[in-house]
Design a protein that fits this description.
Rossmann fold; 5 helices; alpha/beta; 176 residues; 32% helix
Length: 176
């Protein structure tokens, strides 16, 4: 089935190869893809028992704007027509605000790896959104792994699209 609006979401700290696979899967099923960047503003982040580390500042080093630019540049370089892609903030802990960012009729594609993702799927359903659970993507890369390798000068470049590697290499140290 092809949807008018399909949505992926994540913190994208940074946007890595599994995020790109997630995007491609939704792209194949949607006329337009909305990329929802969660935790867009530190003031919207809440501590969640199923989400123990995602609220910490060190887990969110990139600003909303940096993530937007990184994703937009990556998708452009991958050949996707940007006029069919919308990148928006998605304050994940504030469902009452989603209506301002998510068009009516949007289908949320949720990859479930843990109880946290199951809870997100239920939040989306509770807000009246259609949810498609993606169960054919297995977790092999985490943003936490990429950030750890980046800090330790490890081989992080193999885990991100080339555009993201260039973006992070030109980002001044200590910013974001």
């Amino acid at each position: 089935m092809r949807y008018k609006y399909g949505m992926i979401h994540g913190r994208f700290q940074p946007f890595h190869l599994e995020h790109l696979r997630y995007f491609r899967l939704v792209w194949e099923r949607s006329e337009h893809v909305i990329v929802g960047i969660t935790n867009p503003d530190p003031s919207t982040i809440l501590v969640d028992e199923l989400n123990e580390h995602r609220h910490l500042p060190e887990e969110n080093p990139l600003t909303f704007t940096e993530r937007l630019m990184m994703i937009q540049e990556t998708l452009r370089d991958e050949g996707y027509p940007l006029e069919r892609i919308f990148i928006v903030p998605l304050p994940i802990h504030h469902p009452d605000r989603w209506q301002y960012y998510v068009p009516a009729g949007t289908v949320m594609f949720v990859v479930v790896y843990s109880p946290w993702e199951r809870q997100k799927a239920e939040r989306f359903r509770g807000a009246g959104l259609e949810v498609v659970v993606v169960d054919n993507l297995k977790k092999g890369i985490s943003g936490q792994e990429v950030r750890s390798l980046l800090v330790s000068n490890g081989n992080w470049e193999r885990l991100v699209p080339p555009t993201v590697a260039r973006f992070l290499q030109r980002k001044p140290e200590g910013e974001g």
